[in-house]
Amino acid sequence: MKKSVEYLREAKEALGCESDYQLAKALKTSTVNISNYMNGISKMDDYHCIKVAQVLGIDPMEIIAAAQEEREKSEEKKEFWRDFRKARGNILGAAIALALGLTTALSPSHTEAKSIGPLYYVKYAMSNQTQTAMILTCPIKSY
Q1: Any stretches that span the bilayer, and where are they (predicted)?
Q2: In terms of Cα–Cα distance, which of 78, 81, 77 is closest to 89?
Q3: How many angstroms separate the CA atoms of 81 and 77, rounded?
Q4: What distance in Å separates the CA atoms of residue 104 and residue 100, rounded to the nearest whole number?
Q5: Across residues 109-129, what is the average pLDDT?
Q6: Are 44 and 38 in contact (CB under 8 A)?
Q7: Residue ranges of the domains in the chain?
């Protein structure tokens, strides 16, 4: 499983930042914070996890859970966050599989066009002066 700093590096690349200073400006934080995150001195807070997730277009909980797991001191709590991340990954995988299955099942290649009878275009014209109405019809060819 990815560490929070890996997501941060991906965001740096996605934003095209060449320096930690540029990344800090993009994430609205200090260069010291970015340096501390990159060097493992501190872990990203939830705000920065969410900002990175927005840059990467992913679920913020993925990064928040990674940072929280890294922050924990007790092995029991670390295990909790690992299990949480695995469970979310499994749910996401199932959702993607379901979406792909539905997309395939509903694709036009699996459907047949139904033949319908003649269609008519109806134009309703009304003259304001004489209050008379006329209906014109003409068949529309079906292809």
Answers
A1: 87-106
A2: 81
A3: 6
A4: 6
A5: 55
A6: no
A7: 4-105
Please provide the average confidence, as pLDDT, over all residues in the chain.
Answer: 80
Q: Check residues 96 and 30 and name the one with the higher pLDDT.
A: 30
Q: Would you say 55 and 14 are in contact if contact means Cβ atoms under 8 Å apart?
A: yes
pLDDT at 35: 96
Q: What sign results for the dihedral spanned by CA atoms 28, 29, 31, 37?
A: negative
pLDDT of the residue at 63:
95
CA distances from 57 to 7, 30, 45, 53, 110 (A): 11, 23, 18, 6, 32
Q: Is the pLDDT of residue 132 over 50?
A: no
pLDDT class of 24 with cuts at 50, 70, 90: very high
Q: Please list the alpha-helical segments (H only) found in the chain.
A: 4-15, 20-26, 31-38, 46-56, 60-71, 75-105
Contacts of residue 136, defined as CB under 8 A and 6 or more positions apart, other chains included, come to: 122, 123, 125
pTM for the model: 0.61
Q: How far apart are CA 91 and CA 113, in angstroms?
A: 36
- Scan for tokens 């060449």, then name that residue: 18
Q: How many residues does the chain have?
A: 143
Please give the structure tokens belonging to residue 88.
């979310």
